[in-house]
TrEMBL record:
SUPFAM superfamilies: Periplasmic binding protein-like II (SSF53850). This is Multiple sugar transport system substrate-binding protein. Keywords: Signal, Sugar transport, Transport. It comes from the Bacteria. The lineage of its organism: Bacteria, Bacillati, Actinomycetota, Actinomycetes, Micrococcales. Residues 1-23 form the signal peptide. Gene3D superfamilies: Periplasmic binding protein-like II. InterPro entries: Bact_solute-bd_prot1, SBP.
Length: 456
């Protein structure tokens, strides 16, 4: 098969057909010699506190971004942040990709989810922060948090928030059927069967539209789906049909076949209605889930006061593995004319105590800064959604501290799409878990080779 150079096709892997043009102007002509990328200071959504200072432009979609930026600008005399919300997630990435392709129009600093960093890095769109202040802040985050924003030996993001995982459950359903939170996957299956046999609801969900969650489950069982280091130019390791991954997929395929878990897509009105109505005994999710659930109306009516959380079930409880779902960072664009100032912003914005406190107290982020994770206020916080349970101390902080990170690659978005297809096939009864893993491996290897990678 004729292959194309890897770099030439990376642009298309996750962002092919981006239709939304970036409105940002290039050059930063009126931003006082600041970063030089993205919107000029005249387009800020925040007020520049010190107009004589150079300006760094920032794209971010955190709900409290204006407050966070104001806190930074008040505290700094040598640089100011000009913040713009160009949309969340995919919308922002499409605009960033347009700017990358055009060679101008990107912001100096960009909010990026961890699983997107490798794709942008492969296009030389991000700056390595290792020599731009990383040493000053590295002890503020765990090794796992840094691994998630690393590509090879480079650091391409300043960690902000994450999603250490636990098992959210309904205490009313558990009490009704006389069950307790399972500590192993074997116990989960037995508990789910007991609840079903007594006429109860689905115990959990195995949704095809959550490939990132399923990938976390792979890591929990000791899998290493990918090896990738841009220093080994054009090479990638892919192992998606390992015994560990087959065990995970066969386990969930068995739960689906026995009718113990639901398969409808998550993050839909129908799924949320089912959560509210008690169609599920648990929601295996991340520390950000209470904020999301409450925002969707969960816990406000008949299901108020029934929620609690417990650690994730384990394959081997004597050797537990912490996993993570989600998380964002601030990355410096290669279009920034002053990378040093941009890096100061990336590492400094959303790093002060007032901003971090506002973030976690209002359930906007689960902070990864160890100064917050270790604080008494955070550890002992009685979470209202969990009826006063100290969920951070019980579940999420231990998981965050023990998390060892994942390896992301420029193939990430294609992989998610392919895994979604295979989960759907499992749920439809078309393939076993092992067959899905073999098909996934074949698909990803072929695609990587088509893109010009040498697969190890």
């Amino acid at each position: 098969m004729k292959t194309r150079p890897v770099f030439a096709v990376i642009t298309a892997l996750a962002f092919a057909g981006a239709l939304v043009a970036c409105s940002a102007g290039g050059g930063g002509g009126d931003n006082n010699g600041g970063g030089g990328g993205g919107d000029s200071a005249s387009n800020c959504e925040n007020e520049i506190k010190k107009p004589d200072a150079p300006v760094v432009t920032l794209w971010a979609w955190y709900p409290n971004s204006e407050l966070v930026v104001d806190n930074f600008n008040e505290a700094n005399d040598d640089v100011q942040v000009c913040w713009t919300n160009v949309g969340a997630g995919g919308e922002a990435y499409d605009k960033f990709q347009t700017a990358i392709s055009a060679g101008s129009g990107a912001p100096d600093v960009m909010m990026v989810e961890a699983d997107r960093i490798a794709t942008f890095q492969a296009q030389d769109a991000l700056v390595d922060l290792k020599d731009l202040g990383y040493e000053d802040v590295k002890d503020n985050f765990s090794d796992g948090a840094w691994k998630d924003v690393s590509v090879g030996d480079g650091i391409y993001g300043a960690p902000i928030d994450g999603g250490p995982m636990g098992m959210i459950y309904r205490t009313d359903i558990f009490e009704q059927y006389g069950v307790t939170p399972p500590t192993t996957w074997t116990e989960l299956e037995a508990t789910a069967q007991k609840v079903k046999d007594a006429g109860g609801p689905f115990f959990a969900s195995f949704a095809a539209n959550q490939p990132a969650y399923v990938t976390a489950l792979f890591y929990q069982n000791g899998a290493e789906p990918f090896e990738y280091d841009p220093a080994n130019e054009g090479q990638i390791g892919i192992e998606l049909n390992s015994p560990e991954i087959k065990e995970v997929l066969d386990f969930w395929a068995g739960l689906v076949e026995k009718g113990l878990v639901g398969t409808e897509d998550q993050f839909t009105p129908e799924y949320i209605a089912g959560v509210i109505n008690g169609n599920y005994a648990t929601y295996l999710s991340a520390a950000w889930a209470p904020g999301y659930l409450q925002g969707a109306g969960v816990g406000e009516g008949a299901d108020a006061g029934v929620w609690a959380t417990a650690p994730m079930p384990q394959w081997d409880p004597s050797s537990p593995v912490a996993i993570n779902w989600g998380g964002s960072a601030f990355s410096v664009s290669s279009q920034a004319s002053n990378p040093e100032l941009a890096a100061k912003v990336a590492f400094g914005v959303y790093a002060d105590q007032a901003s971090l406190d506002d973030g976690w107290q209002n359930q906007i982020i689960f902070p990864l800064n160890v100064n917050v994770l270790d604080s008494d206020d955070f550890l002992n916080y009685e979470v209202p959604f969990f009826s006063g349970q100290q969920a951070n101390k019980d579940v999420y902080v231990p998981a965050a501290n023990a998390y060892e990170g994942m390896t992301y690659t420029p193939l990430g978005q294609y992989y998610y799409s392919a895994l979604t297809d295979q989960i759907a096939a499992i749920n439809d009864g078309q393939v076993t878990g092992s067959e899905a893993a073999d098909a996934l491996q074949e698909d990803l290897v072929a695609y990587a080779e088509e893109q010009g990678f040498t697969v190890n």
